[in-house]
Amino acid sequence: MENTLLIGLSRQMMLERQMDVVANNVANVTTNGYKADRSLFEEYLMPGAHEDNFVGRDRRLSFVQDRATFHDFAGGPTEQTKNPLDVAIDGKAFLVVQTPAGERYTRDGGLQINAQGQLVTASGNPVLGSNGPITFQQTDHDITISNDGTVTVLEGVNNAADSIRGKLRLVSFAQAQKLLKEGSNLYSAGAGNSARPDTSARVHQGFIEKSNVNAVTEMSRMVEVSRAYTQMATLLQQQSDLQRSAIEKLADVPA
Amino acid sequence: MRALYTAATGMAAQELNVQVISNNIANLRTTGYKKQRAAFQDLIYDHVRRVGAQASDQGTILPVGIDLGGGVKTVGTPRLMSQGTLSQTGNDLDIAIRGEGFFKIQMPDGTYQYTRDGTFQMDNQGRIVNAQGNPVQPTITIPQNSAGITINAQGQVSVTLPGQTTPTVLGQIGLTRFVNKAGLQPVGDNNFTETPASGPPQDGIANIDGYGDMQQSSLEQANVEVVSEISDLIAAQRAYEMNAKVISAADQMLQSASALFR
Questions:
Q1: Half-sphere exposure of A182 (CA within 13 A, CB side)
Q2: Smallest CA–CA distance from B229 into chain A, residue
Q3: Are residues A93 and A187 in the same domain?
Q4: Predicted confidence (pLDDT) per residue in A203-235, tens digit
Q5: B249: nearest CB among A178, A222, A236
Q6: pLDDT per residue over A165-206, tens digit each?
Q7: What's the pTM?
Q8: What gap in Å lies between CA A39 and CA B101, rounded to an integer?
Q9: What's the domain count of chain A?
Q10: Do B127 and B240 belong to one domain?
Q11: Which residues pair with B160 in a beta bridge?
């Protein structure tokens, strides 16, 4: 009798988590380079005491639990900003960012220059080139980032020849799902997952990759989740009514 | 119900987004204005089931974990320092910069501020000053009764003095560069001040070392593009609405849960 309540509760807890995932996607609908999360669920068979040798076997109780959230790495829409320090990555690659905690990876290409002349992310962490951080000189102007990530500038008086300041490191992963979201638009590689150079990815200067959250999908998923939750609540309510009336009826002493 | 708070961060972020966009649109006709944009990042994640954890005694590894995010934060409102279009004004003391530099303006308290707004006038002493009456550096004084002010691409100011036929060079308006222009602090009146993020000012001369050149009788328009601002505004407004919808859906769920106890 109580099993109904517990199974219902397991589903409600799972729906609540799914709602959290949807809410986070919607909150990040304007976050550059954000990748949406999806929830996965699985059945959980109760490993309770049971006896399967009789004709009428014990029925296993099946609960539900959320097994995982996986990242949807589909590309987001790209917007032309005409800002020379904005880069959008075409392909599965990530930019490499140097943080105090080690190397992190990002798809957010809204870059800046710090007071030391280094190319940094919006949080101020250096973006790594193949030979470490990319640093500009004080007289550099007209920064160009080519499709393979090579950063060139016009230097001071010499307006005819380009000077190369570095080449953006682009990496991809054998198991992209193992990437762990760290917040601040950064991913860490995760256990047993190493970055390898990606030569097929292309960089587009003056564009930025927007969030790949599909508003329509998220909204319909949200409606689905909240309806299912309410439905479950009603079911639990009916179940408890059933129990109450059963107890009342059975306890009715005939006069 | 984490979703409530997550959606609240989303609404706060979009509110700021609309503020930034509206300031850009308000300054559509401001000489030398540089547009801003809001940059967002996701908040920290709660790793409920960490990826790579062992799922069984046999050492099965979880291929993916459960990560619940906490919403969104604004990391900054970087300024886009791209060149604005130049428009002809016909006024002798209007100067536009094509390139990297800024005009250096001396404030009454002796400090310096920097601007791309080259709307200059002459004050009662003949000095070339900005709209607030503060002299552009180095200070150049134009003698009375002189005619035909010309300012060349390097910023050299020359006039024809009374009784002379050839122009006399009075001085040279300088330009200042910063390693990180976007790190300058806006202080209103179209002016900026240096910050630790911008790097120290480097004074120089126009048309050399990438300082950009000057163009007399022109002004630099704001680099705001109406079409992109309006489309950003629509996106921000819709995102705000959607976050509000998430809050009401989460509220409904809570309501149905609390209705269990009668």
A1: 16
A2: A81
A3: yes
A4: 999 999 999 999 899 999 999 999 999 999 999
A5: A222
A6: 999 999 999 888 888 899 999 999 887 888 999 999 999 999
A7: 0.87
A8: 51
A9: 2
A10: no
A11: B147
